[in-house]
Design a protein that fits this description.
Blueprint lengths: L1 E8 L24 H14 L5 E4 L1 H6 L2 H8 L3 E4 L12 H19 L5 E2 L15 H8 L4 E2 L18 E5 L2 E5 L4 E2 L6 E2 L3 H6 L2 H13 L5 E4 L15 H8 L4 H12 L1 E3 L1 H6 L1
Parallel strand pairs: 1-2, 1-10, 1-11, 2-3, 4-5, 5-7
Antiparallel strand pairs: 6-7, 8-9
Helix pairs in contact: 1-3, 4-5
The structure holds zinc ion.
Zinc ion (ZN) binds next to loops.
Length: about 280
């Protein structure tokens, strides 16, 4: 059973909801840290001879095009993380489509082939007050075969959404949804597939959750970010919750990934979907 390894390729300042601290108009003045961190990730994956899906932010592909080349040359999959890192539910359908196509056209031009996968900033395809299910129609209409934007979590996702890959019907055909790994608990699902959850919860519990999923024939979906491989302290005064989510026990990410790569087999989403 192969699990699925993914990276959201964005820089240290691509954090949602901090426009009042660092507006996107100032991104160009921020130090770019992405190359060094991506080299660490690619070296790690190459050591384990594993291929992954990289959801690249269009802004990064435009500002640092060598990133796209580095990832492609190692045989990994390129997918879209949108262009400007705005949550889907904060955009109109027209704004979302422009952001999506800007990233798609830019990166397809660089790699010379069609991309088929999308992941929204901060798992922001949601239901209820933040309803943004319409984005799935637009993704399917524009050739995307899979999405990985619906987290089965409280607060940032849809708590009762399926926790294993599943098909969704859109007006333009089916699209496959790949949710991030979660662990059930009396408090609801906990995010252990990446970010603070992967760093904080005991490794044994994460490993057991993946073992159980794999025995049932389902892959676990793991994700990480380049800034989790950096010892740099960002010059941002973030609210404590953001600081915890982005940087709590940050040095654990690499150690956890090494253990996961040692204990399990991984592949990219395209291959899990199409074989
Ligand atoms: Zn992101």
């Amino acid at each position: 059973m192969k699990n699925i390894l993914t990276v959201d390729v964005e820089d240290w300042y691509h954090i949602c909801d901090i426009e009042h601290i660092l507006p996107p108009s100032r991104w160009d003045q921020c130090e770019s840290r992405i190359l060094g961190n991506m080299e660490k990730i690619l070296t790690l994956f190459s050591h384990f001879k594993v291929q992954a899906t990289f959801f690249i932010l269009g802004y990064i592909a435009e500002r640092t095009p060598e990133i796209v080349k580095m990832i492609c040359s190692e045989g990994h999959e390129i997918a879209s993380h949108g262009y400007g890192h705005v949550q889907v539910y904060k955009q109109t359908e027209e704004e979302f489509l422009q952001d999506l196509l800007r990233s798609k056209i830019l990166m397809e031009g660089m790699m010379g082939e069609k991309m088929i996968g999308y992941r929204a900033p901060e798992w922001s395809i949601c239901s209820g007050k933040k309803n943004s299910y319409w984005a799935l129609d637009l993704l399917a209409q524009h050739g995307f075969l899979y999405d990985s934007s619906i987290a089965p979590l409280r607060f940032i996702g849809i708590p009762r959404a399926p926790t294993i890959p599943y098909p969704l019907t859109t007006s333009y055909g089916e699209i496959k949804e790949f949710p991030p790994l979660v662990m059930r608990s009396p408090l609801g699902n906990l995010p252990i597939g990446g970010g603070w959850g992967l760093r904080i919860f005991p490794y044994r519990r994460i490993r057991n959750t993946i073992d159980r999923l794999n025995r049932l024939g389902h892959p676990a979906i793991i994700f990480c970010h380049p800034s989790e491989f950096d010892s740099f302290s960002p010059p941002l005064t973030l609210p404590w919750i953001k600081r915890f989510v982005c940087y709590g026990k940050i040095r654990t990410t690499e150690e956890r990934l090494i253990r996961l790569l040692s204990d399990f087999e991984f592949t990219m989403m395209r291959r899990a979907l199409l074989g």
